[in-house]
Amino acid sequence: VATVTTGESAVKVLGQPDFVSADFNVTADGMGNPNGIDFFNSTTDYLFVADTDSSRVLVYDLGTDASGVTTGESASRVLGQPDFVTSSFDTTASKLYVPGDVVANSDGTNNYLYVADSGNNRVVVYNIDVIVNGENGVYFLGQEDATTANIDCVFGVSAFCIPVSLDVEIDGEEHTLWVSDSSHNRVVGFS
What we know:
The chain is mainly β.
């Protein structure tokens, strides 16, 4: 955005075919209550959208020039679901349940996407060097494994437990992942 002015109209829309539609659609070109978004530039540019009510993350492959995005464009890949028309939730390595936010980051070797998987009380980490529809997460923060979604945190309030994570951010200098833990009135950091 080179210049922004008060009252300026948007020039592109994703998730709807036009600026006057507002339908909930579980398709490659539809969305259901999108929340967190993040842009990641590696060898290609990706836009990640936490499509909360569809329990998925949509991945838009923007190429090397995001200005080529067209209104109503379909997502190129999906995480948290096996395909673009499934909208179910579960606590597995490949499923999400109401993801609230996303943030992408590179550690210098690998490229990762961190997803606040709010309904499963965890953060799911995906390796995004190559993205495949419905792929498994590689790490699960806030739970002991990929199939646990314990909101009561058996371990009690600790450095490990993060129920109801709604927001994730990366500190670029230290590569610390910050996660909001609204149930315990705190924010926790993972290095």
